[in-house]
């Protein structure tokens, strides 16, 4: 037998030779980037165009869609997030035709159309950590188009405050003889710190524009209403205080932002400082500022950066990970791992929930993907270290007296009974089932399965699914907090009293919360301007928030 | 309020100032290392002494135990593996008194004694990924004592073929203003590649000795007997072929080594080449060589290195991750992630299993820890991409017709009914329960819970737990393959026929395997020497295997 076990290496050498004319050291002129990509990328390649939640390899994406589809086609895109219109155009233009991804942001509908036209085959939807895992096993990028802030002459890279996916993409690609192409905003003699060593990088291009970073996770306290405050009070008093939750993740939304803003006021008045919410795994969002400044929160492990928060994070190195240069270090892969194994509670929101507690953001006519939610909102059977919260939840979850005690992650879905659009949040059947049929998917696109959800909080009250012993209890618990939705109207009033007695259903008054207390006065910051002041001017919000 | 949010940074600066006299650039002379540690490490510090499965920060460990316990004490050790006797001495000498860990190797009994004497408080046992997660949130090393092969003058590090935990320890420590101290075997002008940039490193010391690396995972084919071969045949034909398992992890043991050696012979004769076992997430162990050389295995994602395999791995870059220098890149954190989310099957072994399928390597008189097994052998509720194997297992696992279809990871426990020591592998009650009492642990130290196990394979036959619909079926399925152990003797012979009919219990003849076929002739390599030849001399086994 005469097998060749160095095909990838030889092929890489050949590719780089083909584009040698365009290169000076590792650098290519921006005018030549399209030609370089056209000559370097081969049909059928797996390609990752770095698409994070926030920063994007924008110049490379814009360049890649300009290659000649006669030369470069049948590309298999494997990247976590589709954020730029170029991430869709690549399929429209016939350059790529296969996709593995995690999150499609606003492109859910266009992606569905393309799939129906046969222009893209969706090979798989993954959580972030799942896609990164496959990068190292059966789905390695042949070419990675990545983005960094600065490079030095040798091609060492500085990713700065928004590191996100870069290290994991580069490691998977570079160590499999893949090709790593980086766009940077600036070339300097000496980098503030090295995030990616130059020998992991093949080509560097100076981008003509600084890529746009959107303040995706910033929530303006001015928009937090009394309903959200009431829900936040129930979460703090009814869940965080009860279980002693000290390590957690908050999803993006006004309700969890309300929780953050109530920590130095309401939670502190309940004597909870030093007892709950000391360790947060989440993006560095501005509504954390009052709880940080008051010493409530001790550490924040970040997935990415947030516009306007760079100087604040730099000035709070005990709270945030920072490099030798003082700038934030964010690493989505490690933070997602923390979200799975390091936290005791995940609190998030959803668009639809059924009577089994299954929830999803996938609705008719779109293919979305769930980013990290299934991972962070999933209970890990592999976890072995115990905390008070994890054991208490596990204890409540024991269905029979003789079951072995297992710990359990708390998973809280906080959702108003109706969405801002007027659509009910609670439904008898998720759209996900129709979507599955429509798209011929092996499974319905459910974001978090009911068995992982432990608490549901609405403006009506709270359901503790851990304590339910029968399917009927579970269904009725959900109906009893589903308000005036059709799901809620089917509640059994006799059952309600029983469930309240068992503490499966808790209304605010059951835990001594009066609706009239839920006032905006409880917010430690009522506006973006308040957050700026609280940060001593270190938080510098984008202009649009100050209008 | 006047809070200081830069305490860690200032404290780090102070510490480095205290040891400035010992430093030339980042370098300290080996004669001064004990003094440096004594002056740099403070009481109550969290310290990680890099302890991997294989490579160890040995010189730093030996130096650390020499510090004066009057000056340095109450240290909280947070490290994945306790491998060196110094990892225990640190507690005996009163330098450290708290421990968070993953795996205690041969020190299970000494650790238990120390705990009973009050010299160490075990704060937590974790899987690897779980401990790394906490490094980024609530359990960050203040000081990390790490190991690399080479450093350059600036302090950039080359970890070479055995990278293992280094990147994750360093990232967690360096970006929290912790102190990173590296021992290296060699100082060179130019590194073959940079694995850790110098600005993540504070102190470097040239170690007087090259640390010992043991071939922990190498199994000699000469020691594989017909029983293991029979079990391997059942695994290949009864599980891998049935589900089409293409991405998997093998634990360490003769049975899974037998599977590897049967791939180019038995499995190929069944027409399974290109259909199973193409992507392996496991250490680069020599028994993989014949399957790699014959083109059966396409890729191996490695957790660490293995003695003797460096040149082979370097010569097979299509199979193994290698750096620009050609040398193996192993990264335990990423590989553990792959073990959770990227594979469809885990096959391992255990010391004890109860009648519920719970299994553990923890036995009386020792505190062990489970390394990565709970993670790799755990089903992830967060996984969202589908494969044939995962869906088929999930389908079999549906307890009621109306249950939602979920995918499921296959978890195979392959164990002979009696251990080599003569102890039965199957027991009515695990020692773990007594251990829990003895050590006052919150939960019994169970390695893999029964609900995660899908198949149990013994020399008697195979139990498919997915198909069991009642607790009684499950218990009897286990008893029916437990041979002459007291658990096995309690089998219900009437039930046996029913279970065989339902394919819950499968004996070799039920799937057309005759015990007489299970011959050593099926092994593609019968000795270490055969493996060397198969590798064309590229595998260079340690001398002890060639005696």
Automatic annotation (TrEMBL), chains A, B:
Give the domain of life.
Answer: Bacteria
What is the species listed in this Swiss-Prot or TrEMBL entry? Silvanigrella aquatica
Q: Please report the name of this protein according to its UniProt entry.
A: Malonate decarboxylase subunit alpha
Which Pfam families does the entry link to?
A: Mal_decarbox_Al
Q: Which GO terms describe its molecular function?
A: transferase activity
Coiled coil regions, renumbered to chain: none
